[in-house]
Structure formats: structure tokens, C-alpha cells
Amino acid sequence: MRKYGYVVVEGPHDVEFVYRLLSPFGFKRVQWMKHLDPFMSPLVPTTFPHGGDLQKRVPVPLFLQNQSHAVAVRSAIGDSRLVETLDEGRTGINLNSDFDLMTGVGVILDTDREIPAADRYKAIKSGLAAKGFTLPNGPGTVATGPPRIGAFVLPDNNSVGNLEDLLIECATTAYPSLLSTAKTHVEATKNDPTLQEGDGEDLTKTPVYNKAVVGSIGAVLRPGKAVQVSLQDNRWLRDNTLQIPRVKAVQDFLVSLLDLV
User: Fold this and answer.
1) What CATH number should be reported for the domain whose range is 3-160+241-258?
2) Rounded-to-integer distance, Cα 256 and Cα 250, Å
3) pLDDT tens per residue, range 56-103
4) pTM
């Protein structure tokens, strides 16, 4: 019997981030319903349009499986729905019975709104408590279950920042020349007199600047594709970059949460 996990993240980039961190443990993406572990099938939406919104993407989690585990990674499409998305997963699996068979349930969020990590964690802890989930006292730690539960606040449970902080560290190793040219491009854009109000976001803000740099690198590696495609296909999170301390800390959190050891 497999062990099961459910991880909620803020957006599609974070979904691919988790995938790359779990790949070394033999996890593969599940494309076809016939290959999905039956325990996970209640998490597959069965209606369209979702919520009546014709423009809204159907929220299918990324399902990952190896011989011993099946994990659903779901984007909340923004930090405001993290709690609701985690609770929706519990409702889908079955609140009163099957959910207790989960090995690990977790949240990965960030601090890119310049809110201290401790405050971000306090808010998510309070929100989940209202839904009956009890997080441990501090971020990056895992409470024993069943199911195990925890939340990691990117980039390192202490600093203000986001996933892009970690990706820039990875690019320093994997794509140093591309990183340098991307920074030059974004720096030049800060003072571009042809740009008008409404043409873009404020690049003087560090989280926005980092997103622009990562996006520039991704656009070169996979022209015309979203950054998450580059995270899936390219060397951002492979081999040596997985040993970067702040990256490995997130991977170690997932190992503990999902009982991969």
C-alpha cells in the first residue's frame, strides 16, 4: 500500500518546484487517469466549467507517484486561498475516514509581500486551526499525525522573499552567464523612459525584480513558454543545485512531511 500526500502551494511555479525536489526520489508525473492511484481519484474535478467560470482553469492537481508514494500537489492560485484549498482536499478525500490515511499534508507559501515570515506563518496557522488543522509551533517543522502536517515559508522560514530568491541562487550555479545578462536587462528596464504607467510592475521592489530576472532567464531557455515549463525541463533544480542549503531545506521538509526516508 502506498503512502499518500497532499501539498498546497501558491502558484504553478511552486508546483513545478515541488516536482523537481521530489524527482530524485523516483516520482513521475501521472498523465492518464488509468494510472492514478484510486485513493487520489476524489481530487480530480468532475465538472466543467469550474464554479461556473468559463475562463477559469479546472484545478487539477499535479499527481506524482513512485512505488511507495502518491502525492497531489495543488496550486491555490494565490496566497488568499491556501487554507481553502487545503480544506477542499480534505473534503474531497473524505473528512471523517479516508483522510486519516494520508501520510502528510503540507503548505508551501512565501513572504513576497514584505510581511515577516513569522507573521505569515502565524496567519496560516490561525487560518488552518479554524478548519481543524493543527500546525506545529514554527515554520519548516512537521507535526506527527496521522496525517503529518507542516508549512514552509519561502525562501527559508526567516527571510522576506519568495521562490524566485531560491531560483536565482540556483541560476548562479546552473546559468551564471544568463543570470548576469538577465540582471543587466532588468536593470536597464528600471530606467526605460519609453515605459508608461501601467506598462508593468515596480521593478524597484525586490520580489518583483527577482521575478523579472527569473522570467528573463526562462524566456531564453524556453522561448514562448511559461517559467514553470523551464523549471520542469531545464537545469534549475538538478544535481548540484539541489545541494544549495536553502533549496535542500525545502526538500528536507518534504522528505519529513511525506515520510520518504
Assistant:
1) 3.40.50.10620
2) 10
3) 787 889 999 999 999 999 998 777 788 888 877 666 655 445 667 889
4) 0.92
8 Å CB contact between 131 and 120: no
What is the domain partition of the chain in residue ranges? 3-160+241-258, 163-240
The alpha carbon of residue 66 and the mean position of all alpha carbons in its chain are separated, in whole angstroms, by: 19
- Angstrom CA distances, 138 to 95, 149, 246, stand at 25, 12, 17
pLDDT digits (tens, 9 = 90+) for 223-256: 999 999 999 999 999 999 999 999 999 999 999 9
Buried b (16+ CB within 10 A) or exposed e, 73-110: bbbbbebebbbebbbbbbebbeeeeebeebbbbbbbbb
